[in-house]
Amino acid sequence: MPAPELLRRVLPRGEFSRNVLTLVAGTGIAQVIVVVSSPIVTRLYTPADYGLYSVATSIMTILIAVTCLRYEFAVLLPATDETAANVVALALLVNLGMSMASFVFLGLAGASILTLLSAAAVGPYVLLVTLGQLGGGAAGTLVNWAVRTKTFSEIAAFRLIQAVALVTVQVGLGVVGLGSAGLMLGDVTGRISGSSRLARSAWRTNAAAFRRVSRAGIAAAARRYRWFPTFSSPSALMNALGLEVPLLSVVAFYGAANGGRYALADRACAIPLTLVAAAVGQVYLAEVARNARDQPAAVRGLFLRTTRSLARMAIGPAILLAALGPLLAGPVFGPNWSETGLFVAILAPMYFVAFVTAATGDTLYVVERLDLQLVREVVRLVLLGGAVPLAAASGLSATGAIVLLSAAGCLNYSLYGLISWYAIVAAPRRSRPTGEAPAAADPVATHADGDDAAGIP
């Protein structure tokens, strides 16, 4: 059955399903471009090249997670577009300042950090890492504005432009033998490409709101949504560390080549997350934010329907992925990558659970349970961050380390979903955190609840 028809059958009906299909169409084409290019890329670059590149992108991802101090995730909250436009301006200004600070920090301490990670060869590319951070922060903010305004077709186009830019640069520079630097340049180009389209779309449709951005409005937005940098930034940092530390640990304990094979397996397993779960999550977030403002009782039903739909959708592909991965990896990616197929089979159960719980994970933003988000990310960091070092300390092989990581991930993402459900059930009984002014008393917003989007857990 074609994927769009399958989605129509399992997803909730109406506008929700249409918006998901719009995102899946654009993101799906983008993923096809990346997937089709993968056998070319893996023959132009070695596993060690890919491992070093993955270290750089992991550092980039960690920086992007906090580059706006999470103010970008407050874009959906304000009741008026004028207030939301001030939040966008705030997020972009913070992103610029944090990117500049990262450049200085990595210039001073980056070499020591990379040496500890057995990735000293990445050292000359600090500027690329911080450019990727700047582009990623800007893109994330503009995507969240598009989610707020439900211009999902613009997000789909943005994903497509990103994929074309990434593949074109990586393949072109791989042909001339640039090594891991070619992969990094392609990644950074992909991150910043397409952002101008999102910016033009936002201005074209909401110019009046952006013209009313002011220093006073930006300052008021920073005060109103101060809980995002206070609580959500530490959570986001731990979230990113929990996701990226496994790869960094594999490189540090088992070498760049094993790190490259793991990174490719991780990317293959994550495709359904980026294709379907992330699209569902963006639409779910827009719907649940509206429900939290207008009809809070509907949040439970939306959460359960979305979770059940994703579980039914994922079980078959997860089994196929585990069965076919070891058979196809060598012929598809080349003889240097055959072990990647075994890693794919081992990681498939973890990614099944992640797929089911990822789309609804940002419910905690909507019900403003940033305290629970912090707890959830601590659990993730302990489980996923500790698995590979524990395996290495126990004398396990690289394959054994991936087995332990997958088991830890299954436990983590199960808890992830349970914590989201608990937050929804407990929300009506929860009082506002001490010290937070009611929204009506704040000049920036007229609503207390709401939220914005996030990334893949």
Gist of the model:
Helix content is 79%, strand content 0%. The chain is an all-alpha fold and 457 residues long.
Tell me about this structure.
The chain has helices at 3-10, 15-44, 47-66, 81-116, 126-149, 152-175, 180-192, 195-211, 215-224, 227-254, 256-294, 298-333, 338-358, 363-366, 370-393, 398-426. The chain has one domain. The model is unreliable at 429-457 (pLDDT under 50). With 457 residues, the chain is an all-alpha fold.
Rg, rounded, reads 21 Å
Overall strand count:
0
The overall pLDDT average reads 82
The ordered string of helix (H) and strand (E) elements is HHHHHHHHHHHHHHHH
The major beta sheet can be summarized as: none
What multimeric state do the chains show? single chain
How much beta, percentage-wise? under 5%
Unreliable residue runs? 429-457
Tally the helices.
16
Overview features:
disordered C terminus; globular; mainly alpha; about 80% helix; about 0% strand; about 450 residues
Spell out the blueprint of helices and strands.
Blueprint: H1 3-10, H2 15-44, H3 47-66, H4 81-116, H5 126-149, H6 152-175, H7 180-192, H8 195-211, H9 215-224, H10 227-254, H11 256-294, H12 298-333, H13 338-358, H14 363-366, H15 370-393, H16 398-426
